[in-house]
Amino acid sequence: MNRRELMLASAALALAASFATPTFAADRQIAGIVFQQDQFFNGIESGMKAAAKKAGVELLLANSDSKPEKEQQLVDTYVTRGVKAIVISPISPKGSEQALRRASEAGVKVITYNTFNLDWDFVAANLSSNQADLGRTTGEAAAKFIKEKLGGKAKIATLGFRALGAEVSDLRTNSFLEAAKAGGNEITVVAQQDGWLAEKAVAVAGDLITANPEIDILYGANEGGTVGSVQAVRNAGKQGKIFVFGIDGSEQLANFLLDKDDVLQATTAQQPFKMGSEALDAAVAILDGKEVSKSADVAVLGLSRTDPAAVEAFKKEWKSLK
Predict the structure, then answer these.
(1) Residue 159 falls inside a structural domain
(2) What is the mean pLDDT of the chain?
(3) How many domains are contained in the chain?
(4) Does residue 42 sit in the same domain as residue 105?
(5) Which tens digit of pLDDT belongs to each residue from 265-287?
(6) How far apart are CA 280 and CA 270, in angstroms?
């Protein structure tokens, strides 16, 4: 092979390599960190990946497995590696602050998501679902149901998670109850208990039903509370007599809405794909020197038994995030 042929061959190999392996600018490398692997965070990661591909940035994904020491190690490693931004759902507002503050002081832009009422001064942007909107959207569905099906009066018991996060639990619950009063509905809250893990919530809801047989509605402030409430109604044989409204979205809750037993009436879901993509978009915009909102709400999605087509569409999208 002569020199000219050798040069042409080398050029061809270089061109082929450029197509086989995408290249990214060093100043556009972004780390994305989740703290557990479930459908919600799979959706977050999918949204990040889609936004990164569209923007032409390199995305480095990692999972802290809800371990503060691992989260700290990941943040420190990414800073050492030279990433320009970290997009993260912090495990703890207190426990996560030190490592992320160090990252910010090292010049790394910190973008947080899925974190409520964060007051860190070094965060470039924070994206989360509006907790009051979650409760209000379900409450609006409940108000219509109470007016049309219960004659404008309802006795309600609620399952929250105050021991886990009182402010968020109260926001979701109080906004639900306030919205349920719309149109002059008479609402009586007969009991309020904690119950956010499904296996425990079913027992709590069951006890509430036994102690308060006059209950018309059970409200779960999160997925576990909602699932437990549905199962408790079924266990008590109260289908058609006690109705459930809740917060959060999952394939299981979608199936409950489509079930003919008429127990779960409505729930309001967060949108993880949208949250992940918008968080990554914010990081890219910040690196490009553009102004972004310091705090932004990601739209929530109301799902109701009265719109099975929308529930089916949600279920299909959710299954794709597994």
Answers:
(1) yes
(2) 90
(3) 2
(4) yes
(5) 999 999 999 999 999 999 999 99
(6) 17
**Distance separating alpha carbons of residues 100 and 183, to the nearest angstrom:** 47
Longest dimension (CA), the chain: 93
* Measured CA distances, 189 to 212, 225, 266 (Å): 11, 17, 19
Using the predicted structure, report yes or no on whether residue 39 has a pLDDT greater than 60. yes
- Give the whole-angstrom CA distance, residue 201 versus residue 221: 11
Rounded to 5 degrees, φ, ψ at 196 are -115, -15
User: Hunting for tokens 């219509």 — which residue is that?
Assistant: 144
Range of the structural domain that residue 178 is part of: 131-270
Q: Indicate if 32 and 92 belong to the same structural domain.
A: yes
Q: What is the CATH number of the domain that holds 245?
A: 3.40.50.2300
Instruction: Say what percent of the chain tops pLDDT 90.
Output: 80
Whole-prediction pTM: 0.81
3-state secondary structure of 61: strand
Question: What pLDDT is recorded for position 140?
Answer: 98
Taking residues 75-90, what's their average pLDDT?
Answer: 96
Residue 9 has pLDDT above 60, yes or no: no
If residue 301 lies in a helix (H) or strand (E), which one and from where to where?
A: strand 301-304
Is residue 288 within 8 A of residue 27, CB to CB? The reply is no
